[in-house]
Amino acid sequence: MRRAVIAAAMLWVACALAQDYPSRPIRIIVATPAGGPVDVMARVLANALPPVLGQTVFIENKPGAGNTIGSRQAAAADPDGYTLMVSAASGLIMSPMIIKNAGYDASSSSHQWRSLPKHRRCW
Question: What SS3 class is residue 86?
Fold first, then answer.
């Protein structure tokens, strides 16, 4: 019984200390110029997230050097979920192969690179 009370108290403290996500605006880094297909996809995502998350989402275009500038900035961001990145996979993967010091490694497990699901168009 004593262990159950201690476990319940620890759970209550953990819940009290937990922060709600998101508690501040979310930044999406787009590693391509504004107006292109990757930027349009990021803006669609940025428009869909605020109603779900209840927080502002803004876009920062950081084009240049084969997606390296934006990718480097995203890789250097705190891994707290407040900085996301949208990029063409080709630039994200190829840049470290052809640029000696790209500043990030897309194959490294130290970065949380994730891919958005691909859906077929129905029209």
Answer: strand
